[in-house]
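Structure Section — protein described below
Tokens — whole-number codes for backbone shape
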Amino acid sequence: FSALPRRDRNLARRAFLGPRAEGRRLYGVSDAAAFERHAARRLRTAAVRYPDDPEVSALIRELLDGSEEFARLWDAREVDDEPTVRKTFRHPLVGPVAVNCDALELTDRDQQVVIYTAVPGSSAEEALRLLSVIGTQRMTTPG
């Protein structure tokens, strides 16, 4: 992800303007629409908070011009009021991993900390534990 140009790292742009399969692959079929709603609400919140920011305005214009779905969500005029969003990531080794995504605002620094957690005792918690081990080991076989 960090290898992508800065412009291409914007998740709202990727969700609404990227290939339709991309968002569904990243977030799972059941979560794609919820993520799109969340992204549109977050952008509306950013537009209110930063009315003179040219990057925010340009992104909103780009999404309105390029995505009927974003335009529909934008016209709903909803702001982000959900402190927790549920996401399902599809990992190539462990399959779907459902997590809660909490965004904590650091307003004095104009930053956001995003925390992903799994329900204790869930299959997602087990998958995350497995990934913490898999991520530290080389899983290749001699050729």
About this structure: The longest helix spans residues 32-49. The chain has two domains: 1-81, 83-143.
